[in-house]
């Protein structure tokens, strides 16, 4: 039994001639999406986008899984076809020859690579006979439409190659059966027009051939405002002149002399690292030699200055003995100063001359030139290096058809189309490591000079950020002036505003700014604007959602523009959904923003970016602690779309990812005088900082927050800001400054008539005095806070204050009263569903039970508290519980359990960068623990 799949028409599957039930159209689309990449992993996200587009309906994953289940069932009886679940997606394992789409590609590749023209005709006919209509018939999504367009082009190219071969063999009379229909369907296709005209002429119908030329000439002028191409005009003139050479097929290519071209430029003078990439190229070439079925194409990609050409030439010269029939090389000038990309026809003409074809024997028609080129290299063991390609369209006409040839392509674009349609093997080059960069400088400058100025070398390595061209420019400048201390050059590079000026060795190809500019010049206008806007981003990476707000458009459009930048290696998606630039590229982007964008455009983009982080952070903070008093932040700037978060784990994960960015946008807001955004960002970070124990960050943001609040002059905001700053100062050990700050906060609260803020200040003072060991004062302030919140009817703050009262009473030895207060706090917390604060009270009860020798109850309370802290992501609370558990286990003479609890606490302290506390706890791990610290209030 054999299963066969059809994609080149209606989606279908047959088992021994019997149609398999494939279900509804969408279900067939899922099968088609998997078959298109048969035997390759297709992620769930990709499947959804392929079948439903960028904005799928709700519940789409459930629908997808249902379709996959039904398709598995339908394929149960089909041997050799199985849909398998893999990590991250699905694979349809199948013999590719059972899929008409892949069989078409294989047959066309064989037709173009064989040296037997009759066999090529048969293979082309078999390939074209697989088509039953439009590919993926009735399927409609952006992905299917794009793949369909590409297949249509490939089908048209195969039809035209087949027709050229028929003409070459003198079988023009057979073409006239379908050429009229093809010409009518594509009235502006000059290649088809030329084939039709030549077939008509050879059949003795020159008048009709001339009439067809006139029709296409008029249509081109009417619809495109253009004249026919030079090859078509030349054919017209030859028909008018009754050129006798048109009467018979040309055979000139069969007599071309055998010439062995040696066109490779010199290998790079200095080369380091890239061992993995060199090995990959070698393995690819060896695999191609064994398979003898397809051309081996390796596409080396990377940003300008990353060393693509050096890698290609290093490998080519090392393995030159493999290519006994010669090496062809062309600089396609896809990027860089000059007259723009070289046309494929110009390159092919140069290749033909290198292969020994006399200039007057080279055909005029570009397609015939390409066919002659492929014929001359067929069966020959050759290397073709296509350097600095602009895009796949520039490369494809230059590809040989013979599997005996190996092709290396370099480009500042990804050339994904080359991978998709010709199975090119992509190699993306990354920057050099610091050690590799140092090795390159040693090669340029010598070990003595490098060793004598080691500190300056370290600075140069850092500022060049692993970019080989930057390192080469630095080395060239240093070598040209051997008396110049490297420290002088290092100081130039340390100045970010002048760094690109320093990376200029005096010529365009060794001027880093010129290299980057040539990459940017190839960008579409909108993508170039996004590139410049990314230069404003104050952090080293950015999420897709943040870019959408920076640009002021939908995420789908931002994703497409980022893809364009990613395809030219100007940005890098280092993890899914997050993008970064090389440090030097980012400097160039910042220059572009200054030089090409209006100041208002830059300010508007930055304001949207700040609002993105502010509004997302405030929403995340509300998920973490929905009971705290809300702040009014208004609506985000037009074009800003904050990220949507679902729950507490989602919010904590977002804060963990974006924390450095939030600190950066706070600095941006300070620099622009956006005072309200400054203190609002600080407030949005308070709960996260408390749960993660980021005390120094809390101090930093509230120093800025107080300055911003004082600049605004709203006493209610000033009261809150000074309270938070007081708490941050106290946790870093200055009791005098802390109390003074709380006094300022209380004065502002009274001025604003804000009783609730006054209660929060009293509670903060209660915590402060508890830490300082004055539990009488702590009790007094906690009772004041409790009285305030009971009068205001705020049960959550009442519970918090009750826990503070209980904590103080416990430390005064009044355990029964303390237990009553803390149990009442737990009950209030649970009634109002405040798990984080409930954990504080449970921890207090654990302490009270420990002090009253109720070890089993203490252990249960500590474990409950730890679990709640873990659930809400409060690693700081976990540290406190683990420390207390260690103390409890010590009292119970369970030293191993105590050591384990304390070690876990030490590990978490290191994660929180609380190294001093970790060192103290580590030192105490064999003795009695220190007293437990109460919890940081975040209201």
Short key terms for the protein model shown above:
single chain, 939 residues, alpha/beta, Arc Repressor Mutant, subunit A, Serine Threonine Protein Phosphatase 5, Tetratricopeptide repeat, Rossmann fold, 6 domains, 7% strand, disordered C terminus
Could you characterize what this model shows?
With 939 residues, this protein is of the alpha/beta class. It folds into six domains: 1-169, Arc Repressor Mutant, subunit A (Orthogonal Bundle), CATH 1.10.10.10; 171-249, Tetratricopeptide repeat domain (Serine Threonine Protein Phosphatase 5, Tetratricopeptide repeat, Alpha Horseshoe), CATH 1.25.40.10; 275-425, Rossmann fold (3-Layer(aba) Sandwich); 434-513; 713-833, Tetratricopeptide repeat domain (Serine Threonine Protein Phosphatase 5, Tetratricopeptide repeat); 840-939, Tetratricopeptide repeat domain (Serine Threonine Protein Phosphatase 5, Tetratricopeptide repeat). The chain is built from 43 helices and 14 strands. The strands form four sheets. A five-stranded parallel β-sheet has the order 8-9-10-7-11, sandwiched between helices. A three-stranded antiparallel β-sheet has the order 1-2-3, with no helix packed on it. It has a three-stranded antiparallel β-sheet with strand order 4-6-5. Helix 36 (775-792) runs antiparallel to helix 37 (795-811). Mean pLDDT is 87; it is low at 250-257 and 928-939.
């Amino acid at each position: 039994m054999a299963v066969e799949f059809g994609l080149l028409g209606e989606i279908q599957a047959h088992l021994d001639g019997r149609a398999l039930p494939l279900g509804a159209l969408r279900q067939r689309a899922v099968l088609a999406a998997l078959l298109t990449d048969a035997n390759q992993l297709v992620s769930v996200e990709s499947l959804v986008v392929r079948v439903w587009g960028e904005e799928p309906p709700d519940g789409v994953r459930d629908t997808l899984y249902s379709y996959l289940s039904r398709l598995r069932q339908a394929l149960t009886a089909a041997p050799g076809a199985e849909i398998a679940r893999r990590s991250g997606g699905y694979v349809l394992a199948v013999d590719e020859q059972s899929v008409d789409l892949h069989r078409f590609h294989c047959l066309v590749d064989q037709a173009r690579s064989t040296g037997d023209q009759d066999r090529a005709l048969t293979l082309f006919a078999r390939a074209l006979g697989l088509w039953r209509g439009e590919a993926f018939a009735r399927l409609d999504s952006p992905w299917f439409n794009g793949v369909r367009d590409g297949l249509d082009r490939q089908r048209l190219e195969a039809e035209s190659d087949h027709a050229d071969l028929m003409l070459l063999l003198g079988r023009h009379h057979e073409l006239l059966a379908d050429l009229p229909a093809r010409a009518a369907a594509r009235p502006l296709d000059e290649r088809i027009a030329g084939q039709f005209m030549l077939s008509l002429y050879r059949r003795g119908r020159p008048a009709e051939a001339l009439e067809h030329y006139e029709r296409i000439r008029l249509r081109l002028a009417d619809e495109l405002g253009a004249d026919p191409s030079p090859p078509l005009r030349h054919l017209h003139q030859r028909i008018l002149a009754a050129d006798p050479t048109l009467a018979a097929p040309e055979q000139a290519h069969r007599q071309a002399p055998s010439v062995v071209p040696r066109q490779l430029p010199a290998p790079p003078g200095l080369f380091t690292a890239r061992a993995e990439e060199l090995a990959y190229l070698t393995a690819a070439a060896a695999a191609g030699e064994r398979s003898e079925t397809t051309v081996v194409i390796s596409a080396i990609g990377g940003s300008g200055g990353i060393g693509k050409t050096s890698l290609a030439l290093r490998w080519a010269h090392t393995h030159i003995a493999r290519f006994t029939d010669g090496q062809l090389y062309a600089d396609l000038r896809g990027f860089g100063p000059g007259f723009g990309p070289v046309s494929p026809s110009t390159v092919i003409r140069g290749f033909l001359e290198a292969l020994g074809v006399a200039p007057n024997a080279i055909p005029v028609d570009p397609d015939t030139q390409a066919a002659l080129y492929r014929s001359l290299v067929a069966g020959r063991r050759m290397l073709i290096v296509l350097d600095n390609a602009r895009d796949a369209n520039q490369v494809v006409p230059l590809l040989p058809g013979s599997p005996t040839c190996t092709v290396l392509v370099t480009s500042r674009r990804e050339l994904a189309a080359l991978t998709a349609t010709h199975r090119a093997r992509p190699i993306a080059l990354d920057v050099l490591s610091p050690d590799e960069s140092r090795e390159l400088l040693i090669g340029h400058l010598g070990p003595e000079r490098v060793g004598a100025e080691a500190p300056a070398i370290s600075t140069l390595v850092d500022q060049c950020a692993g970019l080989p061209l930057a390192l080469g420019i630095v080395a060239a400048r240093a070598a040209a002036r051997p008396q110049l201390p490297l420290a002088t050059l290092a100081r130039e590079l340390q100045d970010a505003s002048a760094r690109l000026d320093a990376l200029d060795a005096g010529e365009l190809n060794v001027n880093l700014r010129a290299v980057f500019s040539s990459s940017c010049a190839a960008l579409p206008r909108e993508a170039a604007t996004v590139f410049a806007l990314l230069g404003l981003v104050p952090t080293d990476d950015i999420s897709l959602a943040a870019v959408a707000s920076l640009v002021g458009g939908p995420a789908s459009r931002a994703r497409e523009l980022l893809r364009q930048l990613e395809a030219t290696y100007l940005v890098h998606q280092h993890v899914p959904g997050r993008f970064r630039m090389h440090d030097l590229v980012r400097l160039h982007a910042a220059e572009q923003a200054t030089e090409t964008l209006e100041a208002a455009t830059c300010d508007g983009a930055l304001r949207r970016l700040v609002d993105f982080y502010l509004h997302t952070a405030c929403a995340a903070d509300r998920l973490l602690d929905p009971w705290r008093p809300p702040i009014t932040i208004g609506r985000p700037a037009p074009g800003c779309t904050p990220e949507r978060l679902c729950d507490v784990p989602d919010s904590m994960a977002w804060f963990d990812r974006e924390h450095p960015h939030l600190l950066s946008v706070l600095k941006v807001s300070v620099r622009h005088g956006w005072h309200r955004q400054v203190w609002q960002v600080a407030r949005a970070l308070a709960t996260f900082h408390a749960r993660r124990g980021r005390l120094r960050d809390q101090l930093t943001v509230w120093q800025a927050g107080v300055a911003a609040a004082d600049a605004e002059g709203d006493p209610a905001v000033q009261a809150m800001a000074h309270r938070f700053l007081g708490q941050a100062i106290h946790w870093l050990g200055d009791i005098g400054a802390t109390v003074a700050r709380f006094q300022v906060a209380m004065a502002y609260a009274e001025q604003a008539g804000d009783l609730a803020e006054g209660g929060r200040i009293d509670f903060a003072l209660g915590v402060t005095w508890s830490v300082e060991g004055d539990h009488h004062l702590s009790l007094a302030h906690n009772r004041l806070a409790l009285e305030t919140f009971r009068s205001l009817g705020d049960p959550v703050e009442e519970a918090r204050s009750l826990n503070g009262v209980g904590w103080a009473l416990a430390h005064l030895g009044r355990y029964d009263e303390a237990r009553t207060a803390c149990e009442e706090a737990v009950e209030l917390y649970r009634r109002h569903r405040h798990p984080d604060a409930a954990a504080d009270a449970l921890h207090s009860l654990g302490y009270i039970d420990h002090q009253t020798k109720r070890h089993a109850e203490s252990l249960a309370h500590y474990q409950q508290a730890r679990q709640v802290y873990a659930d809400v992501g409060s690693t700081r609370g976990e540290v406190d519980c683990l420390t207390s558990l260690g103390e409890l286990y010590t009292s119970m003479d369970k030293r191993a359990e105590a050591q384990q609890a304390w070690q876990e606490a030490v590990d978490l302290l290191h994660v929180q960068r609380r190294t001093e506390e970790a060192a103290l706890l580590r030192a105490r791990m064999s003795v009695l623990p220190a007293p437990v610290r109460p919890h940081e209030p975040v209201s």
